[in-house]
Amino acid sequence: MLNGGFVQFDSHLVPSSGSYSVSLDFQPATTDNPGITEFISQGSSGGPGFYLGTNGFGFRATDSWGPFGSYDPADPHRLLFSVDSVVGKSYLYLDGTLLDTRSFAITTTTGGTDTRLGSQFAPYGENFHGTLDNVRIFDSAITPDQDTDVTGTPEPSTMMLAGWELQRRWLCGSAGQRARSLALRLRPPVRKLSPENTNGCHGDYNQRHRQP
Fold this sequence. Notes:
212 residues; mainly beta; 14 strands; disordered C terminus
């Protein structure tokens, strides 16, 4: 459960151009209006920045898209953001159903804050409170059916650049507390972060890095 904290990596994990996809599971902690919060972000405001998150009971997706759509905060959901530079379109799917389309391939800045889970890039907060799980980043445009098939390589030929199962989520008291040790370069299948290497975050955090 995310209680206003976030994890920051040491690089930009989401491709900034070309074809790429990001998918994740989320559920807010309560059914109250969450306002503006972010599941994942990187970059800077006006860069344009990359982020996927809530706008009340709807969504925002990068500086180029939002607010739009709707979801029920009482239920868990799977969100898929897919950019196809070949056909020049961007797609957002909710629970396997196409939610909205943009008639251009979204690109974002290569500068700014490195990838974060659970918060907006600096200097903003916009922290997500709730469950965030099964975050996946791909190097091409994928469909919901391909997203659910993580045992093989989706077609067209695609590499899953990163994937995490967040078995026991970090508990942080403020936006300034982060688990910097959670980096893509870590190869062990299970990494357990103790309180002393989470910059103030308390409680165990088990992170499993999966590769295709």
